[in-house]
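Can't attach files on this board, so I'm pasting raw text. These are the components:
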Amino acid sequence: MIANTSFRPGTTRFALIIALALASTGLMAQSLSLQPAQPGDLVASATIAASRSVQANDSRDAVEYFQALEPGSVLDQQHRPVGESRDYWQRLDGSRLRDGYALALTAPGAVVMVSPGTRAAPLQREQIQILQGGQTLSADQATDTLVNADDLRATGMSPTAGSIGFRLRAGLENDATLRIVEANGDYVLHVFEPRTPYALNLGLATDIVHAGGNIDGQLSVSGGARIDAATALLVAPDGSHHDLAVSSTRQGSHIRARAPAAISAQPGLWEVRSSIAAGHQDLAFQRDIRLAFAVVAPTARLDGEVSSYNRRGDGALMLEFGVEVASAGRYELRGALYGHDGSGQSVPIGVAHYANWLNPGAGKLELAFPLDATAKFSPPYELRDLRLGDQSAVAVIERRERALVLP
Amino acid sequence: MPRLLALLIVLMAAPLTVSANTGVAFVHGTSKHTNALADYWTAPFVNSVRQGLPNQANYTVINCDFEQFMWDSRAAGCLATQLHGFITSRNITDLVVITHSNGGNVMRWILSNPTWDSRYPTIISRIRWVNALAPSSAGTPLADAVISGNIFEGALGWLLGYQNDAVRQQQVSWMAHYNANNLYGTAGRPGLPKGFWNVVGTDVRSGLFSNNAYCGGYTQSVGLEFTQNWLAGCSDGFLNCTSQRAAGSLWFNDTQRTSSGRVLNHNQSRRDCFNLDVILRNDL
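---
Top answer:
Structure tokens for the assembled complex are below.
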């Protein structure tokens, strides 16, 4: 099925004139080549076959769609993942909580969540105590807000059953120790310090990495603090994980690794997770952070050859791309066409989309830009933000910011 | 584009169609429903809103499994099935979609991925616009907070706080990725093919003597007051205002339109609280 939703088949006299005009500019039946990949583009050097145990989309319908863009639209292809954390998580045995666990806080107003794990009973507010300055304070004395799992579930949050959350009263942050009376089993402590100046920052060089590609990250901590020790993990959507090497310099800590060459078909994003021990003057504290990105298998790639012509019937500008396919699947191509307006400015015209099932070997995907959208603009046209997606895996596998110039 | 201008464009386009047949669809948030009318929206809200329809029978309340990733056949696939069935069986030519919370992301998946499913272009073509009540367009730190446990250790066997895929998807850095690569409507990305108008909840009131706290349930308000600790100064207790405004266009902040300038916490933005139902009714 071809769904032409934003333009109408059929050629009016006006459209025919425009089609002839376009033909005279050499836009019909031209052989073109993609621009060389630029820094920041995602282009695979080779395709790889990948398992399809979990098909996100196995539709065999060919679907095309065009969407006009506002002239002032600004498309920014670069997305570098960044994250910030004022949190830490700690798994604790019941005996440590019965004895008291030093919270190592750095600012007033800490938000604390304690969640029971295996062999631990649901928590009651009467079990919560805060030890500080030789005093033992009850939950009512030490907290200004306290909620249970039912309260949180009513908000739409999804806490572990039996959890308790509270905010510590200001002034109790120095040397505060959490004690849970009759704690038994495993617990997870989550501490969030919204008012701390010490945030852990993690940035990654890119948001999509091909299987076997490089992962580059940088850790830093704000507030003038230093990182004393750092560890990092790479975690796949299926839960498998790999240790990541962290090297430290005066400028911060760096994560540099290679993504696995073979990846599972489980949908979802990958994460870099890192924990640090840090300090500033007499303070010592902990921070944990997670940051999502994608590791994708380049199951297909554009072969660089493009032909352009005007479609018979509706005169749409057609761009046909050669595709090298390693794994059968449903692939989508989308790209934004730019042209020149009456004042000679390069402006976005619209985004064309097309998806179809491709089998291994050489395939074709084509983009259609309707005549009534392109007719108001002058060449040279340029195709930007060209993306090849693997809809069978919900993955963008090729991305080119400046893909093609049509003279 | 200002909403008034969008309305004018819709009205100007109206004579081109023989006679618009207006319908409204209610799209729930993160949860799995078989009776979202009773369990998510409540009948007084839905019945009040649909009074704005020329034919009050032209409404549908979506029941899908939005505990899945947005693209899943049980999420966007189910939504497409129910919307497509609604517009074709009742010949709806002018569809207003009302979403709440993560329902906005599932709807945005359809609007942003028209080639995913051959039914999507038809659905998109029939939509007038989407009224997105408190959409979680940029995720929420609360999703990050509940996906915890010992995930920073190597031994992942004991995963506390395992969550469904919809919660994983709404972690802040996950939504940033999906917005940049799989969804339209946020800064730097192509606009959505149809208007996506945000209604933004800006605060939570939970005091015992606050009338604002009781609409939608007082215990919910208490929890939302606590969850605000994870959020910025402007939030509805579950989502930062920046997340609610991250995709599409602002229709209004709660206090600009609600009765007596009341705020709408995250649960109140799907209930007949403070005239919200009448505002939505008058928009049909």
